[in-house]
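Re: weekly structure request thread

Next one in the queue (398 aa):
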Amino acid sequence: MRRWLKRENWQTPTGLLVLMSMATPLAFATWQTLLNNFVIDQAGFNGAEIGLLQSLREVPGFLAFTAVFVLLVVREQKFAVLSLALLGLGVAITGWFPSVIGLYCTTVLMSVGFHYFETVKTSLSLQWLEKGEAPRVLGQLIAVGSFSSLFVYSLVWLMSEWLGLGYASMYLVGGGLALVIVAFCAVAYPMFPQPHLQNKHLVLRQRYWLYYALTFMSGARRQIFVVFAGFMMVEKFGYGVGEIALLFIINHLFNLFFAARIGALIGRIGERRALVIEYVGLTLVFTGYAFVEVAWLAGTLYVVDHLFFALAIAIKTYFQKIADPADIASTAGVAFTINHIAAVVIPAVFGIMWLSSPSAVFLVGALMAVGSLVLACNVPQHPAPLRVALVGNRVTAS
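Done, posted below.
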């Protein structure tokens, strides 16, 4: 059917990225918004069990390097659509399995789709977008995702507070809406050419060491936010489903209005300065988490923490500037795996730490932010294939 459609102005690679960026939060934001309340209300989780669930969720991310082998038989664009469909399906059925084992299984299912999709989306974005426009467009894609997330959080609030729907219905709505967009993307968009033939084998290059290190630390930082900051809101401060949804709405309103501007700012000030700003801010935020005792202040820290995610665009655009174009697809998978090395371990290990000292979890996160700051100071002000890292004042290329 797709081959009979006349090519329209909206049938562009950027248009497809926009639609897929809308579909992802419809499924994942539904899962994430409901998760902490669902596991406590329906499955009786404690800190150790939520930590293990989050570790299982990250296992597919750890295996993201296998995407390069799938690309031997499936084109990247088609792989992205199939992965997004698996994400939607996994979320849609989550509410029907309110048990420890059921949640572990549905979480892994949706996570396989999510992580493969994010791997391929990163690769396609860096291939399809010009270097000069990449920070701005990537910021716009974050804003699009935030608009979609705002819709989800508002819908969850409406379904929970006004319609009184159960968890199964809410999960089905979020996952089902994502599947509708997936079906449209599969039918309405042609297969777009790739500007550079991609390596179909694993690529690990010494010259990318700083990118790998920044990616690893980013994965560690994200887990503390995703797993434990949200869990603290429910366990320590008693946030309900509606309050969590409203908190997420505030987060994504900030992204909607500022993410594209932050992307443009990265283009102006450079990746090094953007990352330094991010990690100084995160050090302060994580230290605040460790000692906060007031619910509204904890919520404020959560919003500020979320806003810093947009600055992480700088890691991707730094790699785009230093990379061999043929390495992008393979390295996207390798980077996702590196990102999830810490992600597989941290939720389970820190979940046990949480049982005795929640503050210690966040203080370790502050130390991680300091380590990331040291790494960020080694990013050249103007990255290029022959300017990949600073060692002292010396620019290295290998």
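Residues 196 and 325 are 6 Å apart (CA to CA). The first strand starts at residue 389 and ends at 391.
Next request, please.
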